[in-house]
Amino acid sequence: MSKHKILLVDDDPLVLEVLEDLFSDDYEVILASSGEQAVHLFKENPSTTVVVMDIKMPVMDGISAGRVIKQENSKIPIIFHTGYPGDYAEDKINSDEQPFDYIQKGNSSTRLIRSVKNANECYTSKLNQINIATHAEQTYGLVGISEKMLEVYKLIDKVSVTDSKVMILGETGTGKELVARAIHNNSMRKDNRLCIFNCNHKSPDIIESELFGHTRGAFTGAISDTIGLFEYGDNGTVFLDEIGDLDITTQAKLLRVLETGEFQKVGSPEIKKTNVRVLCATHKNLKDMVDDDKFRQDLYFRLKGITIMIPPLSKRKEDIPILIKRFIDKVTIEKGLPPIIFDNSAINVLLEYNWPGNVRQLFDTIESVIVLSDSDLIVKEDIEKYLNYECSNSSTQQLSVQLKELEKTLILEALVATNYNISRAALLLDIERTNLSKKIRNHKIDLSLLKN
């Protein structure tokens, strides 16, 4: 396996030599003796995962070089390794530049090694997540980079190559059908049919006829033989959505198909065979329905197979900005509209809303607001008017203030416990150093006053 590349920058050739010896066993090192050279080499090596940067250098110092590098790749971790920060105080560097770490020369090399290792792992992990999410969007049509959605993508990849039964769980509007389509389209049955059937709001007779078919004269209105989904989808996949709404009688007939592959058309004694993979989905708790004798226990265990739980949108709000962008593009392109901008106030309302209808409701909201608006700029009032939702209700504000105060207290305690060392405090709080620096700024915590 090839080594990850790291860029080491220092205008002192002796320091650069020491750094090369320190990291060349574990990484592919790129050496730069000036800020200008660092920028040039970074552009030539976009796969670089970490930059270790001296600050005080002639012509272009490390701060300036770091800013240019960040313009090339905003996510690249930069570790400032310096003996003299020049005109910049450490607190100002932390505040303005948000480095992954700040390490003074002369400290133990162990800390620098550990910092580079952590920065490399953090960056490569984020890259991997982005790659997984990009693949899921392009291949499955599923959007999101949250941990919960990444788990869904991984499960789809694993179950698609098998012929296992899959139970897809999630609230209405979370995208259960998209997951079913993704599994089928990446399975061995992808060249055969995917048959989708929604079990809710239909009478048992209609459900049985649509699943298994019927013969002419089987019931009033049956004027010809009809093929059901299990016959039509032979050698393919049948997706039964809202399986929890299936009546007990049909449940027994479905169980027979799962156990033997056999079924009978309504009105026919002939036994037919089918070879289908069954996927099912529900927003109900089938285990509770089994306990209440509303769902057959044997069918429950036959269907359960591998479970994929799709999180509600309220549990993955970090995905909302990405979804907003995708939905704006989708609506404006499909309707031939000019570009629409949602300003920060509008996005904040969308972030704070609980979304009981999940992704489907978010899309409907964005589409409706765009169509109803007379402007190409969507603001807070446009969203609130549509949702009939007041963001700043008193109880929400009070809870928000309490949470912020608690977070500030925890940060202060961690800083005191680590003698105001941001890197150590971040480790204690189990968050990234850059994230902690941002929170310190947001809470207006003045480290210089605390240290005095």
Which properties best describe this structure?
452 residues; 5-stranded parallel β-sheet; Rossmann fold; Helicase, Ruva Protein, domain 3; alpha/beta; 4 domains; elongated
Portion in helices: 40-55%
Please mark out the parts with pLDDT under 50 across 5 or more consecutive residues, or reply none.
Answer: 390-395
* Name of the CATH homologous superfamily of the largest domain: P-loop containing nucleotide triphosphate hydrolases
- Write down the CATH class of the largest domain: Alpha Beta
* Widest β-sheet, arrangement of strands: 2-1-3-4-5
From the coordinates shown, what is the CATH architecture of the largest domain? 3-Layer(aba) Sandwich
The total beta strand count reads: 16
Overall pLDDT level: 88
Distance between the termini: 49 Å
Number of individual domains: 4
Largest sheet: 5 strands, parallel
Characterization of this structure:
With 452 residues, the protein is α/β, with parallel strands linked by helices. It contains 20 helices and 16 strands. A hairpin with a 6-residue loop joins β11 and β12. α10 crosses α12. The two termini are 49 Å apart.
Short description:
This protein is an alpha/beta fold and 452 residues long. The chain has 20 helices and 16 strands.
